[in-house]
């Protein structure tokens, strides 16, 4: 596994992260096996959110840590806050502080390593968010901060007031969800792929040393694309590379994300122990330049 240190931190974290959004469906024994396999495969970064399964994902993870306290020292825990399910988004101090208290309690830890603002709050007052971050950092409840699903100017606005560096931006990205790359390839064209939907967030994050954490890497507008007949060409290309490198189809997808020079940290959400061990092997291979474009094109993306 390859490890990296986000600028301004002393974290040493795996290039592949494990997302915990789906773990509520596992028994305690299955969860224990999943996380131990993940750690044994070199993954030391786990992503949560206060809202996953209404808090049950954090709670189950916390119970697991209680029974395996030595695991805590080996891993970095990130969680997200700011979504009010079914209502909207809330970055007001009282709400953010209550989210953090809830996550700390459910996870059974005294400090969250990384806290992300989950989705932009249209009524965000950045000065107030900055005061919350200061309070959380001074009290030792949170070490580092970042955002999720934010565009460049939303990040700039927050960063203007926050004294802490925003180290991550979590965004949906994978071979079948490439809008942040398409606009950069179709510059100055009149087709749909040229539409700049996110303010060139990929380039912005690279320029500002913000690590992009791609979420749902196997997703497409038609659900999971692996094995999906609508993505025949993509699956054939993935299968070809899977045979060439002797890794699984999911690992080829991860290798494709890791090959991008932005050095993103993809978050995979599998609940299957064998699958996470296989996926971790993606960090051992490097796709060629042609192979990267081959997957991009096979996903149905047009090259002008
Ligand atoms: N910031 C945000 O707004 C946001 C949004 C969504 C998610 N996230 C984060 O991103 C993480 C990943 O999201 P995700 O779980 O949607 O992403 P994902 O890793 O793309 O999808 C995981 C799903 O794909 C299935 N899968 C993977 N490989 C497969 C294969 N080869 N064949 C069949 N099924 C396969 C998994 O099933 P198995 O469990 O059976 O392997 C699981 O149901 C989440 O856990 C969360 O931490 C963030």
Explain what the structure shows.
- With 304 residues, the chain is α/β, with parallel strands linked by helices.
- It has a domain at 11-172: NADP-dependent oxidoreductase domain (TIM Barrel).
- 41% of the residues lie in helices and 17% in strands.
- The chain contains twelve helices and 14 strands.
- The chain has helices spanning 28-40, 56-67, 69-72, 93-107, 126-138, 152-161, 179-185, 201-207, 232-245, 249-259, 273-280, 289-298; strands at residues 3-4, 13-14, 17-19, 45-47, 76-81, 83-84, 88-89, 112-117, 142-148, 166-172, 211-215, 219-220, 223-224, 267-268.
- The strands form four sheets. An eight-stranded parallel beta sheet has the order 11-10-9-8-5-4-3-14, covered by helices on one side. A two-stranded antiparallel sheet has the order 1-2.
- Helix 6 links the parallel strand 9 and strand 10.
- The longest helix is centred in the first third of the chain and has 15 residues, at 93-107.
- It is globular, with a radius of gyration of 19 Å.
- The two termini are 36 Å apart.
- The mean pLDDT is 96.
- The structure holds NADP nicotinamide-adenine-dinucleotide phosphate (NAP).
- Residues 19-22, 47, 148-149, 170, 215-219, 224, 226, 249-250, 267-272, 275 line the site of NADP nicotinamide-adenine-dinucleotide phosphate.
């Amino acid at each position: 596994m390859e490890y990296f240190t986000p600028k301004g931190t002393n974290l040493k974290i795996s290039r592949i992260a494990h997302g915990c959004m789906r773990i509520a469906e596992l028994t305690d024994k299955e969860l224990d096996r999943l996380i131990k396999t993940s750690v044994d495969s070199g993954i030391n970064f786990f992503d949560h959110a206060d809202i996953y399964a209404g808090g049950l994902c954090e709670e189950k993870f916390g119970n697991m840590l209680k029974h395996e306290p030595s695991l805590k020292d080996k891993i970095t825990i990130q969680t997200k806050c700011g979504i009010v399910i079914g209502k909207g988004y809330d970055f007001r101090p009282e709400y953010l502080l209550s989210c953090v208290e809830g996550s700390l309690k459910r996870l059974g830890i005294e400090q969250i390593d990384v806290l992300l603002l989950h989705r932009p709050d249209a009524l965000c007052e950045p000065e107030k968010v900055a005061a919350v971050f200061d309070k959380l950092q001074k009290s030792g409840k949170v070490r580092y901060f970042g955002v999720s699903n934010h565009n460049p100017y939303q990040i700039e606005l927050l960063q203007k007031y926050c004294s802490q560096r925003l180290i991550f931006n979590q965004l949906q990205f994978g071979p079948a969800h490439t809008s942040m790359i398409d606009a950069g390839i179709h510059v100055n064209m009149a087709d749909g792929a040229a539409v700049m939907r996110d303010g060139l967030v990929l380039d912005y994050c690279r320029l500002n040393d913000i690590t992009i954490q791609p979420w749902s890497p196997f997703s497409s507008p038609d659900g999971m694309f692996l094995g999906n007949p609508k993505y025949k060409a993509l699956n054939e290309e993935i299968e070809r590379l899977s045979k060439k490198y002797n890794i699984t189809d999911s690992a080829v997808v991860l290798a494709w994300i890791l090959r991008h020079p932005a050095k993103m940290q993809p978050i995979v959400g599998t609940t299957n122990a064998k699958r996470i061990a296989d996926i971790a092997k993606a960090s051992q291979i490097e796709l060629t330049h042609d192979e990267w474009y081959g997957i991009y094109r096979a996903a149905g993306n047009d090259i002008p």
